[in-house]
Amino acid sequence: MYTYEMAPIFNFMEQKIFQFFQQNYLNWNNIDGILSPGNTQSLYYALECARHKYFPQSKKEGMKNLPKMSIFTSNTCINNVKKGCVYLGFGIESLVLLPTDKQGRIIPSEFEKALQKREKEKYFSLFLNLSMGTNLFGSIDYIEECTRIAQKYNVWVHLEGGMYQKGDFLKNIDSISIQIDKLFSVPQQCCIFLNKYENLLSEANALNSDYLFMKDKVTYDAQKYDSGDKTFQCARHIDILKFWIYLKKYGIKGIYQLLDNSIQTAKSRSQLCVFLIFFRSNFRIKKQGLGAYLYDSGDFYFGEWEDDRIQGEGILFFAFGGFIHGFFLNFMIHGPAFLKFSNGEIYEGNWNQGKLDGEAYNYFVDENIWFKGNYSQGKFTQLIQYGKGRPPSTILNQLSKINSLCQKHKTKNENLSIKVIDFKDGSQYLGMAKQKNPFGLGLLRRLDEKYDAGFAFNGIFQNIARLNLDDGQNMYIGQLQANGKFQGQGVYLNKKTKQWVFGIFENGQLIEVINQGQDEYPQNIISNIYYSHHINSGRFIEKQIENGLFYMPSGYNNNYKNFQQLKWDSFRIEKMRENTFSQNKKIQINVKRNSSAKLQQNNSILNIDQNTYSNRSPKSTLYQFYLSN
């Protein structure tokens, strides 16, 4: 469509839709607009209209006699504004990126400071780009406050309306782009650009070509209905028909209901991450507050974060049993901590940047003995005391109960928040919950101290999860259907034989084998399952909930590939992980069972009561732990 003769009905449709928005939302005295391929081209139209309004001579003379311009936008915006500066000849130096708050909204006071600074530098303040639904956070800029400042300095205000809402403040903006395809799921492309200056688009673009846009048309308003002359490209697709059909099918109330349904769906299923935050693989929002995080390695962290680091108190559950409950500093154990591993061994003490420092207790489950010793920067220096049974440590008294962490980060949203739920059978759930029901990413801590983790809805793991089966002897990691049965891609792993099968499951049954192996954890396959399940795109995805953050599985990310790179802690125990770290220093503690009933430790021979070993067997056990170089 480009002239009235070529598409009369569709030109009428456009004008009717423009009037609909003018009367019901914008409250402008006049309106002009065009349907464009998308939000980026709508922004180009806005920049061009602003320039023509203030400098109409630019259509003939170009930019050579114009002052240097200032174009303001958010520092979290996508690159369409920068492209517009290049495309329309302003240059990237004209772009001013404004500071934003934690929700990604332009700070009005910072906008005014930037205005004043640029005007002192002899720049002409031309254009302010605001958003009603930022790409990064879905936030709405402080439109009314920023518009008031812009009017004070006579700056054109353009609003990107990816998420649209009604408000009296809209009457003071100069232009808006409304992304119909995003709002109402109308097939792409369908985006409307509107401004409140009648015929401004034509004045900026029209060349009145006699072969097409003849001046002797008297049966209709050629300037109004020959829309091709006010565009960049002249001929356009008939995008308006898509929206018109939707309006005819659903009606105005039905369109509102579609929008309400979309909002409610986003709220109720926000933990499924239906909205990807951003598309740059090297871009990550910092984790902050209380969060649950499932790594593709199977490890699960529940606790505090600060500036994208594990920092504060939390619990790290290991994929194949055991956990660390304590304080962390920059991913390392720092402060009091309690370590328990799958074989029952316990380490309790204080750590200094990942290394045991001061008095610490060690408990060996096979021997049922403990010893208390002194450590200095991770090195054992002195044996102080030993005994039979569990150690009399007080470290656990220095640690918070998990429930208190949730209270510390309590949110206003009591209906959906991070919680700890204790069940009657003694098991415990840590993660997202809806009232008292697991609902979202979480971990089920079982009585046998193994754990299941994944997405729970109404108390059932579904969507994707890692589950212990057959008393923990086998494990399934993969996709699930709504009733919790295996459905889609998954890995079935036997912990004892270390045999695994990767395949396609249907209604709980394996129907196709894709790959299989033994003696290794199929890390890459499991990572790809997370990746392909659209939960993320190789980076973490998060949903902010009041003061805390709720984290999804990380997917495959080289920065989180294994413990050595992640540096959770500098103190590592061999039985904790199957990974080997060849460059680490090794210290050995030998506990030898023999007829003389003596404990040998670092060449020191210490007498132990004969009764300590009344039930021992004549074999030697080697305990190794590693300290980082």
Write the layout of secondary structure elements.
Elements: H1 8-26, E1 32-36, H2 39-54, H3 58-61, E2 69-74, H4 80-87, E3 95-98, H5 108-120, E4 124-131, H6 143-152, E5 156-161, E6 175-179, H7 180-184, E7 191-195, H8 200-205, H9 222-225, H10 240-268, E8 289-294, E9 300-306, E10 309-317, E11 322-329, E12 332-341, E13 346-352, E14 355-364, E15 369-376, E16 379-388, H11 395-398, H12 402-408, E17 416-422, E18 428-434, E19 437-445, E20 451-457, E21 460-469, E22 474-480, E23 486-494, E24 499-506, E25 509-518, H13 523-532, E26 542-545, E27 548-551, H14 563-566, E28 571-573, E29 585-592, E30 598-601, E31 604-607, E32 620-627
Parallel strand pairs: 2-3, 2-4, 4-5, 5-6
Antiparallel strand pairs: 1-7, 6-7, 8-9, 9-10, 10-11, 11-12, 12-13, 13-14, 14-15, 15-16, 17-18, 18-19, 19-20, 20-21, 21-22, 22-23, 23-24, 24-25, 26-27, 28-32, 29-32, 30-31
Helix pairs in contact: 2-4
Main attributes of the structure:
pyridoxal phosphate; 3 domains; Aspartate Aminotransferase, domain 2; alpha+beta; 9-stranded antiparallel sheet; 32 strands; PyrdxlP-dep_de-COase; 14 helices; 629 residues; carboxy-lyase activity; single chain; Histone H3 K4-specific methyltransferase SET7/9 N-terminal domain; PyrdxlP-dep_Trfase; PyrdxlP-dep_Trfase_major
